[in-house]
Write a structure and sequence with these properties.
alpha/beta; 4-stranded parallel beta sheet; two-stranded antiparallel ribbon; 6 strands
């Protein structure tokens, strides 16, 4: 597992977060992370999962779109056809519009087809339309490959823009299924993954 900070945040302070090249640098970082992980002696290149929420969701579907080494992806609360993101780290050059083209994040997310992808959305941000607008489009792209079963949407209509417990549980299950992960010893009687052994640090400690 590799968890990295956004450009200009946390321990990644070499470049300001609002640098015009922030999106490009972050995507480059994501691809270089894959280089590092897949260079480890026990890495399995056939089982590479990537997930993140909000800006991490943007990085997830962008990296899956341009790097086929991502075998399973789960962008959380970010796939939208009508919102592109709030700053340079998500709109980039911009990547969604130029003199001869116009696109959106749903089209970019569809580029992962036919590799397994879970799109997690909620009812109180710009992913509120995913079940009726974005997901049917993306599923149709998967259907062109004969793999509509490889893409799913978990929509949490009463939830907000975060990577809360129910969102994580959905991703755990999807990754376990498509990455052939063993769940013995970590599954509760209700089928959920037991997160109790993990300590959530207080904000002050972090």
């Amino acid at each position: 597992v590799f968890l990295c900070d956004m450009v200009g945040r946390g321990e990644s302070k070499q470049v300001n977060h609002h640098n015009p090249q922030a999106l490009t640098l972050q995507l480059w970082n994501s691809m270089r992370v894959l280089d590092f992980l897949l260079g480890l002696p026990d890495a399995d290149p056939t089982r590479v999962g990537m997930t993140g929420a909000s800006g991490g969701g943007t990085q997830t579907f962008l990296c899956a779109a341009v790097d086929e080494r991502v075998t399973v992806s789960a962008p959380v609360v970010m796939v939208s056809s009508w919102v592109f993101g709030g700053c340079e780290c998500e709109i980039g050059l911009p990547i969604h519009r130029g003199p001869e083209y116009a696109s959106n994040n749903a089209e970019i997310a569809a580029l992962a087809a036919p590799r397994p992808q879970l799109i997690v959305s909620c009812g109180t941000d710009w992913t509120q339309t995913v079940p009726t607008r974005e997901f049917p489009y993306i599923r149709n792209i998967y259907q062109l490959f004969g793999r509509a079963d490889n893409v799913r949407n978990v929509h949490l209509a009463t939830e907000s823009h975060d990577y809360g417990t129910s969102k994580r549980q959905a991703v755990y299950a999807f990754f376990a299924e498509h990455l052939n992960l063993k769940r013995e010893g970590v599954v509760l009687p209700n089928g959920r993954i037991d997160e109790a052994p993990n300590t959530v640090e207080a904000d002050e400690t972090l």
